[in-house]
Amino acid sequence: MLYVLPFPAIDPVLVEIGPFAIRWYALAYVVGILIGWRYARGLAARGESPLTPVLLDDFVTWAVLGIVLGGRLGYILFYDLEQYLADPLQIFAVWHGGMSFHGGLAGMILAMILFARRHKLRFFHLADPVAAATPIGLFLGRLANFINGELYGRATDVPWAMVFPRDETKLPRHPSQLYEAGLEGILLFIVLFIAVRRFHVLRRPGMESGLFLLGYGICRIIGEFFRQPDIQLGYLIGGTTMGQILSLPMLAFGIAFIWRARRTS
């Protein structure tokens, strides 16, 4: 007999008042942005770059729009375009899930480019503190994925395997959401935190952003080996997943940014 850990039955809806519901997934976005903003604001207050806390306050609205619009559009384009073309109204049903980190990253980058140009900032003076804070939101987002019982892992016989209620096969699976929370959230945050506090990389524009892109790309590629691919996509070229393929450019840009920062410092 194969033993598995019981899946913690946490209601995905935190509070429900009439037709309105506050879900853990939405709360993860809100809290992640708020805590990330406060952390990045503290980094800006250190005075190691021209970015000021006031400018960062002004950027929060831009960041929210970039994350939400980019994340939604990225999921539609990368993961399930056919379904949304067949039923366009589902594009607006964000409470059903369907957000892409890579799309959210693209939206955030666009928001930072536009904001930096408007306020005559160098792009990396804004991007570096934001990169340092991003793992906070990633950690909370993966915990919300776990609570929702979505984006679960591949079938396994490890002692900590779980049967996820939303999985029709009822096979024991890796709790890959927790693996990703640990890699993309905790581990990556620690690396970036040490880089800022111990090595003062905010004085070298582009270094923290490069470390984030490289670190996330590595963590995501590793995490995808335990995560069940989206059913509508399955495995792609050579047994890879969409998440791994989308992470490859992050590795390249991360290395390029680190190399550039080292040369110009």
Number of domains: 1
Order of helices and strands: EEHHHHHHHH
Q: What's the helical proportion of residues?
A: 55-70%
Quote the beta fraction. under 5%
Over the alpha carbons, how many angstroms does the gyration radius reach? 19 Å
Head-to-tail CA distance between termini: 59 Å
Average of pLDDT: 93
Instruction: Name the overall outline.
Output: globular
Q: Segments where pLDDT lies below 50 for 5+ residues?
A: none
Q: What is the tally of beta strands? A: 2
Biggest sheet layout: 2 strands, antiparallel
Number of helices: 8
Q: Which structural category fits the helices and strands?
A: mainly alpha
Order of strands side by side in the largest beta sheet? Answer: 1-2
Give the helix/strand layout.
Layout: E1 13-17, E2 20-23, H1 24-45, H2 53-79, H3 81-86, H4 101-118, H5 123-148, H6 176-197, H7 207-224, H8 242-264
Antiparallel strand pairs: 1-2
Helix pairs in contact: 1-2, 1-5, 2-4, 5-6, 5-7, 6-7, 7-8
